[in-house]
């Protein structure tokens, strides 16, 4: 294996290399606005909720507000791996929820990937969609043991996730056949453009400051609706939502210049996720760039200029090819203490969906459908993350150093290559 090296060149662009669809400007909320449903957050979760609501009832008056605009949050800044799995690894999920629920969760997660691919195709979104599967790989002895336990659990549950026969540069690998990759900003903005054509009223630059009794308060006006969906993911703190702890977490990502065809062949078509928490995950774009996420994480407002370099160094040590970093960026996700999101009802008028733990592209599409069904009177089958609160985590207060120390410990573990 050739060690990866970063070639020196021009400084990286501090944004992702994504290609959002240009959108017509939307006004901010001014005066008193009323609607049937108000959605806060124009990421994939909020947009997918609007999409499914209007599909179920095109006559509904739905308004969508965002502090900035569509794809301003994680949905425009992800690395674009659309994969199955949710919550704890499958062997631990069996112990926690029992075989039937663990299996149902996995099958549901595969279904979300299919729904996301269908959505991209239906929109005709120019988002570089690929559907080549996903590898979860072990590069250390302990990770190899964990993958073996997961492989056995998938086998016993009759799920089509199998060890790769000759894992090449990895110690071991599991292949998830139902997985995709795409440009998340292109998909998110394509959905926003489609919804504008379907009559969705969108308000940009409208940060909601408080909510209560069915009324949303923005700097220059208010919105009153029969139902409200809060889809702000990790931005819950300023709204004081009673959803337990959805901790904001700053993730880092980089993209390289297009690789040569020979180097692309060495990486392979599948997206790759290292089995160790916080270790790198990466994939090729259709134009041959390598896009990577992972590395040390931070709890905002703390930032760490060295985090990109460290995350990249870890990957470079594991990569069989050299490459030059051309883009690097950060984004905020919502993390919960048990790795499961929160999709639930806060009060009579209000639903919340978020806490995707950095794994939300496929989940967002499914969550939108779930919320639309719930709001239009259908009772979807309960799954473990259909709940009102996440467990408490010490993001602030005297115990906060414990959480930060734990994240540093995870980063240290993830940085080890054997
Ligand atoms: C660097 C990075 C890499 C990632 N890689 C992947 C990946 O490869 N695969 C994957 O599945 N997931 C990945 N994710 C996670 C994924 O992007 C998210 O889980 C998903 O996009 C969440 O969508 P969302 O709509 O719930 O939240 P967001 O897209 O974060 O949308 C929330 C929106 O709420 C708005 N908002 C916040 N507060 C307010 C307020 N008070 N008033 C009005 N609006 C408000 C924000 O402006 C934002 O637009 C990654 C995330 C990051 C940051």
Concise summary:
This protein is α/β, with parallel strands linked by helices. The strands form three sheets. Strands 1, 2, 8, 9, 10, 11, 17 and 18 form an eight-stranded mixed sheet that branches. It has nine helices and 18 strands.
Question: Key features?
Answer:
single chain; 418 residues; alpha/beta; FAD/NAD(P)-binding domain; 8-stranded mixed beta sheet; 22% strand; globular; disordered N terminus; binds flavin-adenine dinucleotide
C-alpha end-to-end distance: 15 Å
The radius of gyration computed from the alpha-carbon positions, rounded to a whole number of angstroms, is 21 Å
Tell me the name of the CATH class of the domain at 31-132 and 141-245 and 337-415.
Alpha Beta
Q: Which residues form runs of ≥5 with pLDDT under 50? A: 1-7
Spell out which ligands are present: flavin-adenine dinucleotide
Share in helix = 25-40%
What's the architecture of the domain at 31-132 and 141-245 and 337-415, going by CATH?
3-Layer(bba) Sandwich
Task: List the secondary-structure elements in sequence, H or E.
Answer: EHEEHHEHEEEHEEEEEHEEEHEEEHH
CATH homologous superfamily placement of the domain at 31-132 and 141-245 and 337-415: FAD/NAD(P)-binding domain
Number of helices: 9
Instruction: Outline the biggest β-sheet.
Output: 8 strands, mixed
**Helix vs. strand class:** alpha/beta
For the residues shown, what is the average pLDDT?
91
- Indicate the overall shape: globular
Number of strands: 18
CATH topology of the domain at 31-132 and 141-245 and 337-415: FAD/NAD(P)-binding domain
Beta-strand level of the residues, as a percent range?
A: 15-25%
